[in-house]
Design brief:
CATH class: Alpha Beta
Radius of gyration: 20 Å
CATH topology: Spore Coat Polysaccharide Biosynthesis Protein SpsA, Chain A
CATH architecture: Alpha-Beta Complex
EC number: 5.4.99.30
Number of helices: 11
Keywords: Cell wall biogenesis/degradation, Glycoprotein, Golgi apparatus, Isomerase
Function: Probable UDP-L-arabinose mutase involved in the biosynthesis of cell wall non-cellulosic polysaccharides.
Glycosylation sites: 148
Number of strands: 9
Helix content: 25-40%
Family: Belongs to the RGP family.
Length: 356
Amino acid sequence: MASATHLLTDELDIVIPTIRNLDFLEMWRPFLQPYHLIIVQDGDPSKTIKVPDGFDYELYNRNDINRILGPRSSCISFKDSACRCFGYMVSKKKYIFTIDDDCFVAQDPAGKPVNALEQHIKNLLSPSTPFFFNTLYDPYRDGADFVRGYPFSLREGVPTAVSHGLWLNIPDYDAPTQLVKPLERNTRFVDAVLTIPKGTLFPMCGMNLGFDRDLIGPAMYFGLMGDGQPIGRYDDMWAGWCIKVICDHLGLGVKTGLPYIYHSKASNPFVNLRKEYKGIFWQEEIIPFFQAAVLPKDCTTVQACYVELSKQVKEKLSKVDPYFDKLAEAMVTWIEAWDELNPTGPGAKLANGKAK
């Protein structure tokens, strides 16, 4: 395998939720080994998770989450990959790349291995254009530019907060689509990155995702899912809807497209249907709620935006199901826990940098 470019090795953490040994990292070694890994172990904390030699990592299980967050640990999902957002909270780096343990290195049409992390970093380090669509997609890529008719006043773009990658082989389908298309595989490698326009929501998948933790981290809460909750598999969707409303309000960008990973394993559609069942109905009211959500001008931080959004969730979605009261409270608990572990103001840098 060709030698990889390693950008931002001191400024980026890789967050991986898992219930099994991380043998998949061997394939990723040329690309990910120089980076620090934060592994969030889901399920039984007494189970030993093995990590291949040579990786720099810290591993947290449920006992660690309870110890570090105390009563606030209730906001972190159990028996669901949503537990990964605990890794976002304890990271002290500017950037996060999160990947699932069934995601392998993809190949581009020429057969070359795709360095997904490098592409995410390129996306995050270049501006976004949410206010006016460029028909050549990302104008900051080599060989592209702004097309005729694109306003010069908007060509500087805005900071990119989120880079959303895609998948070859097993697409990210919901259970009903999985059931009617059990053999469908994605073989189309589209060499494109585009900014999702302002005012447009999108279904965010958490298995191949990069984001600027400083810009949007406190809103990357994957909700209350899994054990003890009436819903699962909407964790990344919930975070995606929240971050998009907040990015639009704060003038930040979200990109989607490259990079691709190879998604190796389809989850069980019958199990998924049980997890998604209520969400399939609820999303018909949740999505209009987010489409109509307006944040006040005095919400100038991600935390303020998120707490305001939690109030609107409580006010407008609790009629859908009492679960949304619980979720709204968990959103506030999440922000309190985030701020406790990530203090700001005089002396905060020292507190932030302390070893646990």
